[in-house]
Amino acid sequence: MTQTEIPPDKISAYLATDYRAGGGPDALVMRIGQHSPELLSLYQNTGSNCALFITAFNPLGQKRDDAANEAAHARLEEGLRAVTYHLIEGEGADAAGKWPAERSYLALGIDADVARELGRLFEQDAVVWIGKDAVPQLLLLR
After folding, report:
1. Does pLDDT of 61 surpass 90?
2. Does the predicted model carry a pTM greater than 0.85?
């Protein structure tokens, strides 16, 4: 990992999170550092070779009320729809259940530079970016 202002316990929590796109038993579940054959298949079906998993909830890991989170989520959707046609709603869920799940999006075709820009715009500590190898990685933003 690179130098960061983010406390190690927060990074550990991000690394332990399940990143889900879609819902129910058919949800695509990604973990940092683990190849996702399902995502690779999605790439092939859409002609994509990279993706961003992002939330606008709880900027900088500070809990906000539901109304503020939902308003930010709507702004995020609008921004993502301006740059990709392939958008799947999902959630980032703490596997240990210590932090509430956060509504999120998997956006296909978003390169790492745009991923960082969007993450900073929505004041996130980090975003999940996935390259053509379909291995999610955590991009730390501060």
Report:
1. no
2. yes
